Amino acid sequence: ATHVTTIEKDCSSIIPPYAKLLQKLDRVRELLNNRPLTLAEKILYSHLVDPEKALSRGGKIRGETYLQLNPQRVAMQDASAQMALLQFMSAGLSRCAVPTSIHCDHLIQAVDGASSDLQRSIVSNKEVFDFLESAARKYGIEFWKPGSGIIHQIVLENYAAPGMLMLGTDSHTPNAGGLGLLAIGVGGADAVDAMTGTPWELKAPHVVGIHLTGQLSGWATPKDLILHLAGKLTVRGGTGRILEYFGPGVAAQSCTGLATVANMGAEVGATTSTFPYTKNMCAYLHVTGRGAVARAADAAAEKGLLSADEGAEYDEVIEINLSDLEPMINGPFTPDLATPLSKFGALVQESGWKDELSASLIGSCTNSSYEDLTRVAEIAKQAQSAGLATKVPFLCTPGSEQIRATMERDGITSTLQDVGVVVLANACGPCIGQWKREDSKGEENAILTSFNRNFKSRNDGNRYTMNFLASPTIVTAMAFSGKLTFNPMTDTINLPNGQLFKFTPPSGQDLPTKGFAMGNTGYYPSPMPEPQPGTQVVISEDSQRLEMLEPFPSHFGPQNPRGLELPSLKVLMRVRGKCTTDHISAAGPWLKYKGHLTNISENLLMTAINDEGGDMNVAFDHDHDSSQSRSDTIPNVAKRLKARNQPWALIVDENYGEGSAREHAALQPRFYGCAIIVARSFARIHEANLKKQGILPLWFVDKTDYSRIGSGDVVETFGLGDLMNGNGEEVVKLRVTNSRGEFFEILTRHTMSSDQVKWLKAGSALNFIRSQIA
Ligand code: F3S
Questions:
Q1: Quick one: 372 and 463 in the same domain?
Q2: Residues 669, 725: one domain?
Q3: What is the DSSP letter of 682?
Q4: Where does 496-605 show beta strands of DSSP type E?
Q5: Known catalytic residue: 13?
Q6: Same domain, yes or no, for 287 and 313?
Q7: Among 232-236, 372-376, 555-559, 587-591, the range of highest mean pLDDT
Q8: Cα(first)–Cα(last) distance of the chain, in Å?
Q9: In this structure, is the dihedral angle defined by the CA atoms of residues 485, 486, 489 and 491, taken in order, positive or negative?
Q10: Is the pTM for the entire model greater than 0.95?
């Protein structure tokens, strides 16, 4: 049934606890001597578990202090939700500590159109969807069925609220920042922190102010603002930083336009992006049935919560005059290679690329708004009335069922279909490689998308597909020319009647006059479902994709003769050089085993280099029997140690575990029996993940000791007992004995807090939580 959302939603679980946040903010102001605060600081610090503890030490906060925070909501997509839920379940709680939602969007393949694609994907992913749905029912999680839409669009339409702090298990979670909040993309282990009510830790990011003046005009859209900024900041320019926009240029943007900008802040590595509360945000809340949130936000804004203080200091300020912006085309293969449209034709020629576009794609979580689609429809109408049809395959993935139904009701879909657009299911589809493309297999070709990412092979699995990012209007207009060098702002298209056709800049409409249509309400969850504890979570015995997580046994059980020291450990290997979470747990074809720890562990460290010999995926088994070879793959040797009940140690180089928050990179070594990892240095997030899984991360005091330890050596800890008893020093001594019986001692440093020591003792953070309930 298609009907209008004039009904107010029940907002009780959505409205942020503004009174409490403001009260905390007052305390924060006192602690910081009433210095003016940025908006990002206000939101973060008002979510601190204990402002006194975090802020009363003096010294620098941004870039230095670790904040313990209480996020208010969690959203998870179907791929990352699997392991997050399995972990949550092993904590033994009966409900989530904060409102949580699951969104089925990543596993839907785009082949030939919405309804058949959806049906096929539901069948092929049935066991995963059944698992997610049953777990959602058991724990009172809102479950958005396949077909409901893409996580970030749904969060913006339903859950985002100004001033809120929320987490999502997907890198484009910051999209929700379009409503003036902090939405942060995290790994499953962080989401589980929030779901279990464990404080979530974040190093206070630096805050970059982006000062917007002037106005967008003509063809320039908010997408062009972020494409321009990506070129300026590069893919690493936002790391450890929040991008906070301010200035007179913010207010004129639609809420959904700001969401596009926030979405793609992820492309420069920003922690998240945010904006002061605006009238357009208020209007968006009303039209999406959240008047109650808008009214509460209006009041909170009056009290100063939802914008920066006058005189707030940013770590850096970037000036952008919107009047100077022209449409941008970014790529190929990286989102920060930004070229203004007027120079793109020359770039195509200089680079020797074929002047041919092979497909246009619009929609996705990034650009599915009513405003985007009305602008696109206007372009299509102009072309159609001149007798043009698109020259290349043109696909559209609506961000949500609500958008799909509204497009249909308002004639946008038929306008697009009339010029040859194929509307796909409301899901990620081609944006995440779920595009079964029949043309251009293995050949160089160029596509234009309004999506957010354009790494090699991202869309169609063909590494020779050059993928360029642009606004939906530019992607659409260029589809009618079929040429890469076509500039819709200045160039004309020859019509069959000999006349020349030129586009005029489209205007679009921010919000639908008739409100949003809901579409098929069968896809939606019941709001705030109560947990049904009797529900059986569905995992079949012989599943290859899902497996219940067995709690990891503690190393400190009665079987350990060394008491509060770790048992004697064998060194699995010494890893040379760069070792990211991708080296530890590869993605690609392994993603289908995300919910099956035994299967995915078969990829452990498979692209890591062994410093003894310099080979990839080779490890040595010094205790092999006559039926086994001495050298084998890394996962195979790890498996042998596990089979012998032999806990092990790993020796690693600098910045071990950099890259992502992927919790599998900590779960997998733990699964095979890893007890300590000794590093020259750790990437912070991964180090925290190791601790959560009950692995002790240790830092070499003298980094040259790294080369003194080799595979097969026996390592014993000394001084851990003191740490376990709560009066430990920072130093843990290791005695290393080699195969000839020679031994030496080295010093390492731990970074365990007293709470983290409890996790180590219990075997994992989740074991500890479970022990507290019992
Ligand atoms: Fe999906 Fe692509 Fe967004 S994968 S969540 S549509 S970035």
A1: yes
A2: yes
A3: B
A4: 500-501, 569-576
A5: no
A6: yes
A7: 372-376
A8: 47
A9: positive
A10: no
* Residue 365, domain member (yes or no): yes
pLDDT for 327-385, tens place per residue? 999 999 999 999 999 999 999 999 999 999 999 999 999 999 999 999 999 999 999 99
Same domain for 351 and 285: no
pLDDT surpassing 50 at residue 3: no
**Mean pLDDT across 130-134:** 98
Asked whether 572 and 650 are in contact (CB, 8 A), the reply is yes
Q: Does 202 map to a domain?
A: yes
Cα of 429 from ligand 1 centre, angstroms: 8
359, 471: one domain: yes
Banded pLDDT at 656 (limits 50, 70, 90): very high
170 carries an active-site annotation: yes
Q: What is the phi-psi region of residue 387: left when phi exceeds 0, alpha when psi lies from -120 to 50, beta otherwise?
A: left
Q: Which of 170, 454, 459, 460 best tests ligand 1's pocket when mutated (most atoms within 8 Å of CB)?
A: 170
CB distance 242 to 182 below 8 Å? yes
CATH classification of the domain holding 754: 3.20.19.10
Residue nearest to ligand 1 atom 5, measured at CA: 365
Confidence of residue 5 (pLDDT cuts 50, 70, 90): low
CA 741 to chain centre: 48
% of residues, the chain, pLDDT over 70: 99
Residue 727 scores a pLDDT above 80 = no
pLDDT confidence of residue 2: 43
From residue 552, alpha-carbon distances to 200, 331, 547, 695, 761 in Å are 22, 44, 14, 11, 11
**Within 13 Å, how many C-alpha atoms sit on residue 259's CB side?**
31
Looking at the fold, whether 589 and 715 belong to one and the same domain comes out as: yes
The alpha carbon of 472 and the centre of ligand 1 are apart by a number of angstroms equal to 15
CA of 34 to the centre of ligand 1 (A): 41
Ligand 1 centroid to residue 431 C-alpha, Å: 6
Whichever domain contains 352, its CATH number is: 3.30.499.10
Tally of domains in the chain = 3
> How do residues 671-687 score in pLDDT, each as one tens digit?
999 999 999 999 988 99
Assess whether 264 and 129 both reside in one domain: yes
Domain final residue pick, 292, 323, 354? 323
Residue with the two structure tokens 């479902």: 529
Q: Confirm whether 768 is domain-assigned.
A: yes
> Would 552 be classed as within a structural domain?
no
pLDDT of residue 421: 96
Catalytic residue from among 78, 105, 410, 632: 105
Global ipTM: 0.98
Q: Is residue 106 annotated as part of the catalytic site, yes or no?
A: yes
Q: Which domain holds residue 454?
A: 326-518
Query: 455: CA distance to ligand 1 center in Å?
Result: 13
Q: Which of 144, 155, 403, 428 has the most ligand 1 atoms within 8 A of CB, as the residue to mutate?
A: 428
Mutating to test ligand 1, I would choose from 102, 260, 432 the residue with most ligand atoms within 8 A of its C-beta, which is 432
- Whether 726 and 629 map to the same domain: the answer is yes
Nearest residue (by CA) to ligand 1, atom 3, is 365
Q: Is 432 in the pocket of ligand 1 (CB under 6 A)?
A: yes
pLDDT in tens, 9-52: 999 999 999 999 999 999 999 999 999 999 999 999 999 999 99
Q: Which of 585, 660, 711, 764 is catalytic?
A: 660
